[in-house]
Design a protein that fits this description.
By secondary structure, the chain is of the alpha/beta class. The chain contains 14 helices and seven strands. The chain folds into two domains: 126 residues, Methionine synthase domain (Methyltransferase, Methionine Synthase (B12-binding Domains), Chain A, domain 1), CATH 1.10.1240; 115 residues, Cobalamin-binding domain (Rossmann fold), CATH 3.40.50.280. It has a five-stranded parallel sheet with strand order 4-3-5-6-7, with helices on both faces. It has a two-stranded antiparallel sheet with strand order 1-2.
């Protein structure tokens, strides 16, 4: 995009606009351009630099020192902090910020390089729990505040989706007689959470039937009956209207009264539904393992 206001920069980085102005005046950290009416605006480079600086400050570095560093020197400082703070939230935050900055500028090479490095350091499960989920959460907040345009959100989501699909493709299929049905209801297209659930279940040697996005409830019912599946997992992230969503839940209960149905995604939205006694809310990955592995 390359045309951010100081308020947008604040929301992207988490650094208050007042603080950004002080850093500009005192340390010349950023050099914004100005409109004809003297309003500051910032480039993609400014966003990436501030993301790096904000993470390094959280790690205990001084802004007065960081302001004097070139881009390559900031990257070295990030690598050093990441190595010292490995397996901590600071290390994960560094990767999240790096992936976000590469995604905002459509830098596929650097995005893949950062993602590969994180997989080698932490493994697929940790990367998706500690890095990808926070990244997607941050994207969601930015999307809600109109800080992303659709192409940026799609680029980042598709990069993550491709990595997750590749990890699933490399896994051996579970030799199970009973499978868990995974689906997104009609009008639901945000697939990352469902894909990660598929990855975890297969890692736990639980068989899955992955139906994917935008699946009519009658199709879900037919598959569950035909394959005698007693467990289903659906994700709800978008508000399709409470009446419509409740009708889908009621229909599943009517046709599959002895099956356990688990709902994940937007838990605030899900909790507004009247769930039958055999329908359950999944609030986290730990919740998934506790309820699915013990059921």
């Amino acid at each position: 995009m390359g045309n951010y206001s100081i308020k947008e920069l604040e929301k992207l980085s988490g650094v208050k606009a007042h603080t950004i102005r002080i850093w500009e005046q005192r340390y010349e950290l950023l050099n914004p351009r100005r409109t004809d009416t003297n309003i500051r605006y910032y480039s993609d480079y400014d966003v990436k630099k501030l993301l790096k600086v904000s993470v390094l400050i959280q790690a205990g570095k001084k802004v007065s020192k960081l302001a004097a560093l070139e881009d390559d020197e900031l990257n070295i400082a990030l690598d050093e902090v990441q190595e010292v703070r490995k397996n901590t939230e600071v290390a994960y935050d560094i990767i999240v910020s790096n992936l976000l900055s590469h995604g905002l500028t459509f830098d596929e090479y650097q995005f893949k390089k950062e993602f590969k490095k994180s997989l080698e350091a932490y493994g697929t499960t940790t990367v998706f729990r500690k890095i990808v989920y926070p990244l997607l959460h941050r994207i969601g907040l930015m999307w809600g505040r109109d800080l992303l345009f659709p192409a940026q959100e799609h680029f980042i989501s598709n990069m993550v989706r491709n990595k997750l699909c590749a990890a699933i493709e490399d896994m051996k299929l579970a030799n199970e007689e009973e499978f868990v049905v995974l689906f997104l209801p009609e009008d639901e297209t945000h697939e990352i959470g469902l894909l990660f659930t598929n990855y975890l279940l297969r890692k736990w040697k639980i068989g899955t039937i992955y139906l994917g996005q935008n699946v009519p409830v009658d199709n879900v019912i037919k598959v569950a009956k035909d394959k005698n599946c007693k467990r289903l997992i659906g994700f709800i992230t978008m508000n399709a209207g409470m009446k419509v969503m409740q009708e889908r839940v009621d229909r599943l209960h009517e046709e599959l009264p002895t099956s356990s149905v688990y709902w994940a995604g937007n838990t605030d939205l899900i909790k507004l539904l009247q769930l039958p006694s055999n329908h359950f809310v999944l609030t986290s990955m730990d919740d998934l393992s506790a309820k699915i592995l013990l059921s």
